[in-house]
Amino acid sequence: MYCPQCGTESSSGLQFCRSCGANLKVIGKAVALSEAIARSDRGPLPKLKEMIKNLKVEQVTEEVSRALDRMNQEIVSTPPAIKPNTPAWPFAKEKKTAAERRENHIVKGTVSLFSGIALMIFLYYFSAVLVLKLPPEAITKIPFELEPVVRILWLAGLMPTLSGLGHIIAGLLIRSKPARVIDETPQPQPSFNGRPSSQKVPGSVTEHTTHLLDSKQ
Which of 54, 86, 183, 210 has the fewest C-beta atoms under 10 angstroms from its C-beta? Predict the structure, then answer.
């Protein structure tokens, strides 16, 4: 075995080279591993090479054309799906009810409110730790005074807090529209052109002729 640095011949049992002190054990392992990889044919690389060699362009194009023909036949044979009645504007939002809008505002506001409070608490303690942990040399290199800025850093959490509070107030102010009350007015009864409802029934023709005959007699 030869040393790769100085070229001195050494026995395989030695760990370090006698001339330059190189680690021959590590070099021997690397050489053995490379030889094993070169001799091995179990990896995926030789199989891929064989597949590429055996691959023919004409065969691939023929298989692709067959697959496309089968797909077209399936598309033609399948009946068209019945589309549901979709609105004319697919991106149009459905109008929410007052209860849904109220719930949406309250949920968003609650999440934003507590997130802002948590952010304020985190920034308050983080700013205090930041001032204590920074070395004086780094503080002197900052072009502005750091302490006043760090003291008001926690105020950044007021933005989500106030936003959440506004959402909650807006949700509480939403009221549902009152239901329409239908006036039940009495329907006018049909009139008979001013004539009284109780009218005398005219006599029949036979009764009239009977009265005339009686008067003549």
Answer: 183
